[in-house]
Structures are given as C-alpha cells and as structure tokens.
Write a structure and sequence with these properties.
Helix content: 25-40%
Structural class: alpha+beta
Shape: globular
Distance between the termini: 26 Å
Strand content: 15-25%
Number of helices: 19
Strand order of the largest sheet: 1-2-3-5-4-6-7-12-13
Oligomer: single chain
Length: 639
C-alpha cells in the first residue's frame, strides 16, 4: 500500500465560519538576503538553517520548535537574488528535506537564475521535530491509535495548524531577509500557500498551485473523486485505441462493476504486480478507495478497470483480482520512517485544520451522534459509488475522520467565503488526477480571485513533473507574472497504455494489423496481439511497483536488471493462458526494442522482435514474427 495516506491529500470539508486575523508577528527590520545560513552537511550546494519559532503561536510562551530550512542559492551572476521562491511539500506529513530537491531546481532552472529556492520542512515533520506516534505511524488500529497519538502530543496537539505553518513561513522570510516572495505548493501544500496569502498578502509576489485540494468551503464527505470517476475512466480509455475500440461505455462498465461488487463481492486468489499471491475479497469499498484512488497515481487502476470489469462480466476474475491484490488491505498501512513521512503530523494538522461533521469539543457520544446524522442525510450514491462504500470507516475511507476519536480545537485556514485579490495566481490541475478532480481543484480559484486555471491533458496529480507543459507554464508565470500561451496544456504528454481486453486465450484476442509478409491467418494476427500485450502489460506493471521483479498476468516473471544493456527480462510471461513469452527488451524515452521467443500450446517456438515508441500518443509498435522461412510484420498501438 502507499505509505502516504492519500485520503489526506484531498479530504474536503464543510463550510465553517471562523475569525482569522491577519498575521501578527512583530515588525522586522530589513536584513541582508539569506542570512544565518551555512552549507548543508549532506550537500554543500544547498545552504541550511534551523530557525526556532514559537510552538504555541496562539499564546506564545518560552517553548519553541525548530524549523529546518534549505536554500538553493540563485545561479546567476548577480550578487543578491531578485527574490525567493518558497516551497513546501504536501501529504500532509511529507518532508521536503528527506527527498531529492534537484528536480525542483531543474524544473525551475530559469527562475533559479535570479531567485533563491527556499525549501521548508513544516513544523512537526522531517528535520523540524518530526512527530512520531508509533502505533499510528505503523498502521495500528485506526481510531484507537489516532486517539493514542493525540494523547501523546498532550497540550501541544493543537499547535500544528496550517495557520501556524503560514506564520512560520513568514518568520522564515523575515529571518532570511527576503522581500516579496513567490509561493509554490502542490496537493496539501496548496493550503500552506493559500493560507499564507490570506494572512500575509502584502509579501506575496505570486502564487502557483498544483492539484489544489483546499479545505474551507468544501464537502466534508469528499465526494469529488467518486463523482469524477466516470469522466476519468472515459478519458483514460478513450485515448487508448485498443481500449476505445473494445469498450464503448467505460463509465457504464464501472457502474456495472460497482453494483456487482455491492451485491456480490468477488473472493479469490489474486496475484499482485510482484507476482505474489493474495487471498482476498474485492468489495465496492476496495474498488472505490483502493483500486481507483490509491492506484490512480499510476493510472493502472483507472486504466485497467474497464477491461477488468468486462472480463469479470465474462466470468474471468483474474484481472480484477490482480488490481485488488496490489492494494490488499492485508498488506497493512505502515507509513514507514517518520522522518520521511510523519503520520502524527498529518493527524495533528488535519484535525485542527479541517471542518468536520461534528463539534470538535463535543463529548465522544455527541460527536458520534452528529456524524451519524450527517451521514444519514447524504445521498445514497456519489456517481456510481454508494455512500456506504465511499464513506467507510478506517484506512480505506477515512470516514469518519480519525479526529473523531479525540477532542481538538477548530482552527480553519481562513474564514468561509474569503477572497484574495490582486495576487498573480496560477492553478494547474491534471485531467487524470483521481484525488483532486476539476470540481475540487476549481475551488481554489474562488479564493484567489482573478487566478488563471489551466487543466493539463492526460496529466495526473504531479502537475509539475508529468510532461513539459506544466514546467514551462510555471517558469514563465513566475518569471513574467503572465502564464502566456497555454495551448501546450491541450497536448497529452504521453499515452498510458492499457489492453483493450483481457482475453483468457489467444483465440479471443483482437487481431493485429499486418503490414508486410505472407498473409497471416487470423490466429497468427491474434497471437501477435497477445505477444505485444504480454510485453506491454509487463512493462506497465513493473513501472507501477517499487521492486525489480513483476509477475505476468497469468504467470511468469518480468525482471528489471538495472546495469544490463537490455534490462527488462521476460521469463515465460503469460498474458493469456496459452501463450508464453521469454526474452528481453530495452525501454527508453525513444521507445522499446526487444527480442523474444513465443511459445504456444501447439507448434514450434516463434521468434519475435518488438520495436517502436511506447506510451507515445499516435504511434504504433512494430512486431516481426519469424518461423522458419516465413517473416510477417504487424503493428499495434503502443498507447
């Protein structure tokens, strides 16, 4: 399972009116840029500082918490930077200091010529005194371990709000001596930056948001992803020639599957993308929150769910069971090293930030009653997904939020209905973002009045890093305060290959298009399809896992050998029951080039080569089959 609990990226909230005063830090005198910094121990190219800030900003006392800051100095010839770009990481709970920051430096290379890049670990995570609640961090019982974490934090539990984070960023700005700053935040970090803009507008030169899932003035049951699933599967399948040809109504297939699992869950043994067996039951909840949501980042879930649903309709549960095995709840919900991701920070942050369906200071019994009443008033379905499957307790649903187990302060990011005017603002969203669909992402534009909203075609949650367009728009916007021509947003950066179907045997596969050689029989053309799909399916799934060995859909292995000239090795990989593919291939940005031996249940082995662009829209792969003196060439879409 993903270590970062993805529900926390997009939990949405009820309208909540609160008074939020503008920042009230003491006045600061001008200071030379980036003072108090020294070369970072692990990388001298960065400059590091630890800045103590008040732990309790509501009633400052003698207690402080250290904020870890890393600065990538501007690369141009000027002695002083023209300004600074402040960057935090989302989650909440993910530490920006724990991960490679050079992708940001590369992404912002033009901006970094004149501006320092300032990376901040928010309070309570990373090197800023990371919260470590062992049971909650490592997937203990959902509500009891959340309550235990709250109790462990004691009187500091309410000191990790986004308003505190925003004021911390202002203190960093003053301490390092910067003037107006540019703000960049993605996912939950968009809350950091929007909240800062509501409190310290006078210090903001620009604000850039990616995949913004804000909190204020949103629905606490977070129905947005489920309602967007039909649009998502239609778009993903619709761009794939194979999927589009075989599946005329992807949204209808998803609705059928949700209803089928609601009535009769599927129980069996599924082999995950590593090839490991799992005995599991596929429920509507696992479909909605595991397969579609957790697997949404790699598009394996939304991409394969349409043909998997149609396979189940024909009586074949293997493709669905593989998708479910990849997100098997029995794998656990361990969040790993709290230095890299602090589940305790996520809990403390959300439980004071987010409006919920109960009074946060009510008794436990009253909180439960209020949530039950709110749940009863919800519609029966969010799109194709029932509320029972979506508003589900525990790690696969987060509803009610774990915060219900304890009393917390209510500290919204800013008052309901807040409008921020006069700040140049860019909002980037991904068409394929399973967690922050358009309905949710556009809420940010209601706060940042006059902002420019751009949806990137065929891009998911990582709007900055998927394809060149997001990076180009971001750099141009920060440099000029004008996003300019956005036509690149309509050009998908890549295709996401998926099979049109999951045939059990080659006899039910679609035929490939022949381009040269003696006329191939329909059986040979079907064999060409299965051979190609075996390779592409193996590459897609080994790319979606954190490991070196993947399993074929119906057996065999695909191994990645990092130092080999031809690093992807197939050993009897089977996409259908009756075709085995062995061999190896390269996979570079230019495409794939592989040689294979294909064995069927009858007849001698066939030699095959597969070459061409993979996951590039509009491009085909070329498969050449050789058996004795006969050579036949066929093509299939590589996306």
């Amino acid at each position: 399972m993903p270590t970062i609990r993805l529900r926390t990226l997009v939990v949405s909230l009820s309208t909540c009116v609160a008074v939020v005063v503008a920042g009230t830090l003491p006045a600061a005198t001008a200071a030379p840029p980036a003072r108090g910094l020294a070369a970072c121990v692990d990388d001298p190219a960065f400059r590091c500082a630890t800045i103590p800030v008040p732990l309790n900003r509501q009633h400052p006392d003698s207690r402080t918490i250290p904020l870890h800051v890393e600065v990538f100095p501007h690369t141009g010839p000027a002695a002083a930077p023209a300004g600074a770009v402040f960057i935090t990481l989302g989650g909440p709970g993910a530490s920006i200091s724990a991960f490679d920051k050079y992708p940001y430096a590369d992404m912002l290379s033009t901006v970094a010529e004149t501006r320092d890049l300032v990376f901040v670990d928010q309070r309570g995570l990373g090197l800023s005194a990371a919260i470590d609640c062992p049971a909650w961090q490592h997937g203990g019982p959902f509500y009891p371990s959340a309550a235990q974490c709250h109790d462990q934090l004691g009187d500091t539990a309410n000191f990790y709000s986004t308003t505190d984070v925003a004021d911390d960023l202002e203190q960093v700005r003053r301490t390092l001596g910067y003037g107006d700053i540019d703000l960049i935040g993605a996912s939950y970090a968009t809350l950091d930056m929007v909240t800062y803009a509501t409190r310290w507008k006078q210090n903001v030169r620009s604000i850039s948001l990616g995949a913004p899932g804000l909190a204020v003035d949103t629905d606490p049951f977070n129905p947005y992803p489920a309602r967007a699933y039909p649009t998502l599967v239609n778009a993903v399948c619709g761009r794939s020639p194979g999927c589009a040809a075989a599946n005329r109504d992807p949204a209808g297939s998803l609705a059928w599957l949700a209803d089928r699992l609601r009535r009769t869950p599927v129980t069996g043994t599924g082999y995950d993308s590593h090839g490991i067996a799992h005995k599991l039951t596929v429920t509507e909840n696992l479909l909605a929150f595991g397969i579609m949501f957790f697997n949404g980042g790699s598009f394996v879930g939304p991409g394969e769910i349409t043909p998997a649903a149609e396979a189940l309709r024909r009586g074949d549960a293997v493709p669905l069971l593989r998708l479910a095995a990849d997100v098997d709840p029995a794998n656990g919900f361990d969040s790993g090293d709290p230095r890299e991701y602090s589940a305790g920070h996520a809990l403390a942050r959300m439980c004071v930030d987010l409006p919920v369906q109960w009074d946060k200071d009510a008794s436990p019994a009253r909180r439960a009653q209020q949530y039950a009443a709110a749940y009863a008033a919800e519609p029966a379905h969010y799109g194709p997904i029932s509320k029972a499957a979506w508003d589900h307790p525990g790690y696969l649903g987060y509803s009610p939020q774990p915060c219900i187990a304890s009393s917390w302060q209510d500290r919204p990011n800013y008052p309901s209905g807040t409008k921020v005017r006069g700040i140049p603002s860019l909002i980037l969203a991904g068409e394929y973002d399973a967690g922050v669909p358009e309905e949710l992402a556009r809420i940010a534009g209601k706060v940042l009045v006059g902002s420019k909203y751009v949806e990137l075609a065929a891009v998911g949650h990582a709007t900055w890093f998927e394809g060149p367009c997001g990076t180009a728009l971001l750099q141009r916007f920060i440099t000029t305060l004008n996003v300019g021509d956005t036509s690149c947003a309509r050009v998908p950066p890549a295709g996401y290959w998926m099979p049109g179907s999951f045939p059990v045997t080659a006899a039910s596969a679609p035929v490939a298009k022949q381009t040269s050689g003696p006329a191939a029989s329909p059986d040979v053309r079907r064999l060409a399809t299965v051979t190609t799909w075996t390779v592409l399916d193996g590459l897609s799934h080994i790319a979606s896992i954190s490991g070196l060995v993947a399993g074929g859909l119906r057996g065999g292995t695909i191994t990645y050998v990092p130092d080999a000239d031809v690093p992807f090795v197939f050993d009897d990989a089977r996409f259908t029951k009756d075709v085995r593919v062995s061999g190896s291939t390269t996979w570079t940005p230019d495409g794939i080039e592989g040689s294979f031996t294909v064995r069927t249940s009858s007849g001698p082995p066939i030699q095959a080569t597969l070459t061409g662009p993979f996951t590039k829209l509009g491009s085909d792969l070329t498969l050449t089959l050789r058996q004795g003196p006969t050579t036949q060439t066929l093509t299939l879409p590589g996306y």
